[in-house]
Amino acid sequence: MKRVAFSLVLAVGLAASSAMAADMATKAPPAPAPAPSPWDVAISAALMTDYNFRGITQSAHEPSSQAGFELRYTQSPMWQYYAGISGESIDFPNHAAAEIDFYGGVRPTFDKLALDFGVWEYWYPGGQCFATFSPGCQPTLAPSGNAAKKDASFIEGYAKATYTINDQWAVGIQEWYSPSVSNTGSVGWYTVGNITYTVPSTMFAAGWGGYISGDLGYWDLGKSDSFYGVGSLLGFPGITPAIANAGDPYKSFVNWDAGFGVTYKAFTLDLRYYDTNLNKGDCNAFTSAYTASGSGNITAANPGGVGSNWCSGTFIAKLSFATNMSSIK
């Protein structure tokens, strides 16, 4: 009888163990971690000793600041869509309050080749009109005698390509087009190539990095509308209304920059030299610089001889910060 009872207990125990093993074998595995969101926001900010755009100062060679946000949607490793806004402090001839940039586009990536196609709008609110011979405008800017439209806003379309050769070297080319650069009436095609060398990370302590880079660009410009012909030419000796109304034949020009940067986590300190091949006369005609002066800088677009250093060579230091919301923990 004891043997029978022991056998029954053993059988029950084995059955229970088998049931538990079966439960364990069929139990669902832990739920996988949720996939990262395709949405992200990039944040940027900068302080610089001068705001330079294609070799030309946008802040009259004075310090400037920048801040911006970019919304990104990464559909896949190959496709990213984005839209952003950025603001910069400036010092323009029309006394605009600031530069506000609106932009958006798509970034396709194919292995080492990264492309970027989009549209960029430069908006300059708060401007005033300066032109002695135009109704509703204030007298031309002293001491330059230059004219400036109330609205200098304009739009560009762009296409970019960057090829990453290896961990250290990358090269790129960009093409930008505007039907009216700075609302002057002049068509503008801007082509620029660049090269970047990233210093191997093994040469730095953790979190630090560095690079050396340079850009070479060419801005193919047309002729301004009659506003700038009247504002900048009429009143000088030998300049008739017919000549003035024809507008300014802007000088196409080359610009370049070269420099290096040191990075620490989200911060970058960039030290760079910028220059163009524009002389002071053609620079004055294109920029309508209110600080221009003199009389010996005569060119086809600048018969009055006033000259500007807004396109001259300059060294710029820029401290910037850039990160993504997804990187902030």
Descriptive notes:
This protein has 329 residues and is mostly beta strands. The protein has a single domain (36-327), classed as Porin, CATH 2.40.160. It is 14% helix and 42% strand. β8 (154-164) and β9 form a beta hairpin. The longest helix has 25 residues, at 2-26. The termini are far apart.
H and E string: HEEEEEEEEEEEHHEEHE
User: CATH topology, which one?
Assistant: Porin
Q: What is the terminal separation in angstroms?
A: 69 Å
Helical percent range?
Answer: 10-25%
How many strands appear in the DSSP assignment?
A: 14
Task: Give me the Rg, rounded.
Answer: 30 Å
Strand order of the largest sheet: 1-4-5-6-7-8-9-10-11-12-13-14
Strand content: 35-45%
For the record, the count of structural domains works out to: 1
Structural class: mainly beta
For the biggest sheet, the summary is: 12 strands, antiparallel, barrel
| Mean of all residue-level pLDDT scores | 89
> Could you name the CATH homologous superfamily?
monomeric porin ompg
Low-confidence stretches: 1-22
Helical element count?
4
Overall 3D form: elongated
CATH architecture assignment: Beta Barrel
Which CATH first-tier class would you pick?
A: Mainly Beta
What is the strand and helix layout of this fold?
Layout: H1 2-26, E1 39-48, E2 52-53, E3 56-57, E4 64-76, E5 79-88, E6 99-110, E7 113-123, E8 154-164, E9 169-178, E10 188-198, E11 208-221, H2 226-233, H3 241-244, E12 253-264, E13 267-276, H4 280-287, E14 314-324
Antiparallel strand pairs: 1-4, 1-14, 2-3, 4-5, 5-6, 6-7, 7-8, 8-9, 9-10, 10-11, 11-12, 12-13, 13-14
